[in-house]
Amino acid sequence: MVSSESSHSALHQIPRNSLALLMIAQVVVLMPHALHLSPWIVAVGLFCGFWRTRVYQGQWDYPRNWIKALLVVASAVGVALSGSDVFSLEAATSMLLLAFALKLLEMKNRRDAYVVVFLSYFVIATEFLFDQSMAVAAYEFGAMVVVTAAMVGMNQFHTRVRPVASLRLAAGLVAQALPLTVVLFVFFPRVAPLWTVPLPGGGTTGISEQMTPGDIANLTQSDQLAFRVVFDDEVPAYQELYWRGLVYSDFHNGTWSAQKSRFVASPGEPAAAGDAASYQVLMEPTMRDWLYALDRAVPETPGVRRVADYTLRSRDPVMSVFRYEVSSYPGARLDGRGMTRAMEVQATRYPVDDNPRIQAYADELWQRTGDIDGFVRSLLQQISSGDYHYTLKPPILPSENSIDAFWFDTQRGFCTHYAGALVFMLRSVGAPARMVGGYQGGEINPITGHLVVRQYDAHAWVEVWDEGRGWRRVDPTQAVAPARIESGIEAALSAEDRAELAAMTAARLGDWTLVSSLLNWSESLEHRWNLWVIGFDAGSQRGLLEDLLGDITPVRIGLAMLFFGALSLSVAALALFWRRRPTRRHPVERAFRSFGDAAARHGYEREVHESPMVFVERVGHQARVNPAQLQLLIAQLEALLYNPAVAWGSRELKYLRTQLRRLHFRLAFASTQ
Amino acid sequence: MSEAIDSGQISSRFGQWLDRRIPPGKRITLSQHNVFIFPTRMGFVFGGLIVVLILGAINYQSSLVYGVAFLLGTMLLIGILYTFRNLSGVSLELVGTRAGFVGEDIGFDVRLVRPQGRGREGIQIGWPDGIKQWAELCDQEADTVRMYVKGTRRGWLRPGRLLVETYYPLGLLRAWTWVDLNAAGLVYPKPIFTDIPAGTYGRRDEGELIDPLGSDDFTDLKTYLPGDSVKHIIWRSYARSDELMVKRYASFVEPRLWFDLDQIPGGVEERLGRLTGLALRATRLEREFGLRLDGMEIAPGVGDAHLEQVLRELALYGMA
Fold first, then answer.
1. pLDDT category, A51, cuts 50, 70, 90?
2. Residue B62's pLDDT band (boundaries 50, 70, 90)?
3. Average pLDDT over residues A134-145
4. Choosing from A335, A404, A475, A497, which is the catalytic residue?
5. Torsion of CA B218, B224, B228, B232, to 10 degrees
6. A400 to A82, A211, A354, A435: CA distances (angstroms)
7. A558-567 mean pLDDT
């Protein structure tokens, strides 16, 4: 059974065609991960790929066992030492990718190749935990085709090397799978997480719980998306778009920090009243739990709650694009059940040994004005009339007496500088005040009409307690740079700052140039992607199914799934089994075929082994046709049959057909006798 | 992936069901009536991968991971159509059978024809006791595959149902069928080579006189050797001397040999083997020979056709 064994091993080998595709697939699949993983993991992947390529070329041998063991141990140690938590998503992904790379080095038979293919699909899916943008999705869709092509290659005849054919087949297969995928996507019940999972941490930009004056200025350098908002009705005026995120109450060593939030049940609280703006926010992943909304926010989405300071929290950190609905009542008071003693203590606390000059300055001003309103007004007056400047690049301040240095010496700062100084002065005279961080403004996409808020819209402002009106918003930035609040950051900056910002944030090119319209277009596309694909969750599924089916019952969902599933499968089946009309035969062949059919009706069947000429000769003899004429007919048939240039209407063919018809009559006549 | 086909695994009840489902025929075209599809082991692993992805999608609430899982699941479903399409419309026909001797591989030629148009890839066929072979139907519309099955006993070798299978394109699904092409190959007895007897006694009216004395009278005595006719033993001398003696007669030695089952010692199979050997040797020496099996007689002749006829009788001796 020698032959049996050799054919067996041939079957278990990976065809070269497929091997090449597998290695291409590995690079394609690893590439996007290179953006958020340690470079050494990428290096290991490339090294293993290179080694396997050398093996493929027959230059090197497979690594020995001890080398493989060493690589595995080194990789595990590397992941453990890389700093992140061993049970974090990053560590798990790193291990998966390393295993994937190392598997290449021992990929010898088909089973190994299948392991690599399955790991590839898995790696594709993991990438979506880090990035769900449309571009990445399109890329990974292509990656699926390449991986699938590698799998197809493994089942082709092993000597056949046709990667393009495999790719084409894989592309067709994946494309035909799309309709049913959409059906499943829409109808497959979305359920809540079954258990808690390690989340990807860090690395995202945005407002954080600690804020030093320079932080927001750094955010301004980024045009990364923060969130999108779709208003049910009109978008409120630009200067009213204060997206509240966090409230900072503690000031220590030049840093503002947000207190731990407590959820409130809020019994007996006066219901929000007045005109409301309803909207839904599609927030980009932040890995944090606070959300952004306009004042005074009432969450309409389960899982989103309000905390004591009227900011919103989600039950779980925002891991992927998160959609929540809010109704905001701009006229409603932000005072909950009034000011408690504990709250007042918290809202007036300040480090008494810090910033002595500004404390004295505030005391002196307080003596003059006597009430909070006047105090605040004269401070804002001071900012707008004095030599204060709004800039992205304020001079560096000392960590001690930083507010003194800003207010009296440098007089250049960003929103946090002004807000911080204002809160400090208010507190030093015993008036409850706090700093609020979030975003201000946004940009309306002219195509879909939704509002886009980016990191450079980050902002900080002040809330002052007023016994009669509750917490009241005061924005010192409006005093120093009114344009910032009215038309966005760009307008508020010096020419130098603006040039730098424009270089960083290409999205704000101002006028309707081709570039900006293209950007608007792609932004609207990305928005729809977020709205309908990424943000498609249990809530939006319910909404869509209600629109589609009316009442949602399991039976209806099942039937709809069955119907649409069958529909999309039959589309695929139709595409696969649709028989093209037979290619047009050679005209002589058609003429002969119709003669053959006619002859068969009279009992003259053509044997399988008979050529047309032999057949005509035999039946001609049987019907006693004149031998000379018969030979002429046969010669003509033979000449025309092997002449590819014969046209259907040509004279020779007409003659031949007449002759064949004559022979047919003879046969019919002979068979009646 | 491609384990050797388990021999004799088609149980009789399944066999009966198969006979009803896919009746035997000379030429069988594959269609939805006779092709089965089931996931392979890798297909089940793939299914497990999809389940893991869905769990991940649920826990990370990631729409796109759901998307990947659904796309892979749908690919598996569409894969059923692809795998079936790869076999559908292909027809199989037994076009030739090669006889052989016991212990040799008996060759069967199966011709596969696909409809015009798209090529078929990765189709394998094989008998339970044989080796699977690839059929090349990608660039050509027809392929003839020769398969060998070991002949273990003489007579008709019926290899039974032929397995036709494909894992194309994904390897996650296997489409297969068992077709009965009524294949039967003749297995001749295993030849045992012995020398052709120098002279075989023929009847007086046949053959050529080689004896100078011109008579078939008794000439002398010789010791008995196996193969000598029992009729010529001199029993009287045996009584005296304990040695079996036979009378020798001058006779006609004919160039046309007669091989007679009765004249050969040994068990039935051994005698058939010897006769096979004799027939082969005589054919190679281009000697005319005839065959007598019990009551059946094949007139002397020479050549391949004659040999085939003789071998056929030897193969089927004693079989209904």
1. confident
2. confident
3. 93
4. A475
5. 40
6. 35, 16, 7, 19
7. 90
Backbone angles phi, psi at A182, to 5 degrees: -65, -45
Domain range annotation of chain B: 12-188, 189-211+252-320, 221-250
Q: What is the mean pLDDT of chain B?
A: 82
B-chain residues near A4 (CB < 8 A): 4, 131
ipTM here? 0.74
Closest C-alpha to A383, from A310, A306, A476, A290: A476
First to last CA, chain B: 41
Kindly report, residue by residue over B222-275, the tens digit of the pLDDT: 777 777 777 777 777 777 777 777 776 655 555 678 888 888 888 888 889 999
Place A287 in a pLDDT band, splitting at 50, 70 and 90. Answer: confident
Q: To probe the interface with A, which of B40, B74, B131, B136 has the most A CB atoms within 10 Å? A: B74
Encode burial over A215-247: b for 16+ CB neighbours within 10 A, e otherwise.
bbbebbbbeebbbbbbbeeebbebeebbbbbbb
Asked if A537 lies within 8 A of B75 by C-beta distance, the reply is no
Can you give the residue ranges of every domain in chain A?
2-155, 210-511, 587-672
Residue corresponding to tokens 């059919």:
A597
A459 is catalytic: yes
Give yes or no for a contact between B125 and B61, defined as CB atoms under 8 angstroms apart.
no
Residue A458's pLDDT band, with cuts at 50, 70 and 90, is: confident
Closest Cα in chain A, distance from residue B171 (Å):
6
- Assigned token pair, A570: 């039959």
A389-390 and A412-413 as β-strands: parallel, antiparallel, unpaired?
A: parallel
B9: closest CA of chain A, how far (Å): 19
